[in-house]
Design brief:
This protein is an all-alpha fold and 190 residues long. The chain is built from ten helices and two strands. It is 51% helix and 2% strand.
């Protein structure tokens, strides 16, 4: 009788094996090129919400964020008033930080201006990499000249919580940068 060993995939060190949400995120989302406009808007705001916290904290609250922020409908979010902000401040399912909540509203307004110019986040972001993910071959990087440039431009456009480190993490999350560790089974060499 032979016994077969189940092979455990090799993942990036940050993918907490004790959290199924984290493993699913690592295996099926992080680093995968994303062109879905609503998801791009969602991830931009979630990356901003992460500032000063762990990604795992935000990932664990992701569904609550979707509910609280109307499935990331920018048109609705852009119209949030003081009453809605007070409601969000009382929502234990999200990070109750007034600045981050206000930034999400501001980002919705900035996003709608971008769309009114005839642009999309998808076209805007992917134009920076000629439509193809960059490959850093597993190096540990937190900012690049490109994340600096995108951050600076987004700030000029009125977006908030879009510093270079946040933008680089965002670029990783949406697959603009292929940054899986070199020993990760999801690593894709250049």
């Amino acid at each position: 009788m032979t016994t077969s060993k189940k092979l455990i995939p090799k993942r990036c060190a940050w993918a907490n094996p004790a959290n199924p949400l984290y493993l699913h995120y690592h295996d099926h989302e992080w680093g995968q090129p994303c062109h879905d406009e609503m998801k791009l808007f969602e991830m931009l705001n979630l990356e901003g919400a992460q500032a000063g916290l762990s990604w795992e904290t935000i990932l664990n609250k992701r569904e609550a964020y979707r509910l609280a922020f109307d499935d990331w409908d920018a048109k609705r979010i852009a119209k949030y008033d003081d009453k809605k902000v007070a409601s969000l401040m009382g929502n234990a399912g999200i990070v109750r930080n007034r600045l981050k909540i206000a930034a999400t509203i501001t980002n919705a307004q900035a996003y709608l201006r971008l769309v009114a110019e005839g642009n999309t986040l998808d076209a805007y972001l992917w134009a920076h990499v000629n439509g193809k993910p960059l490959h850093n071959n597993g190096e540990r990087i937190i900012t690049t000249p490109l994340s600096d440039a995108i951050s600076k431009d987004l700030k000029k456009r009125g977006f908030k919580f879009v510093g270079s480190t946040i933008i680089y993490a965002y670029m990783q999350a949406i697959g603009m940068v292929q940054d899986h560790a070199a020993d990760c089974d999801w690593f894709v060499p250049a």
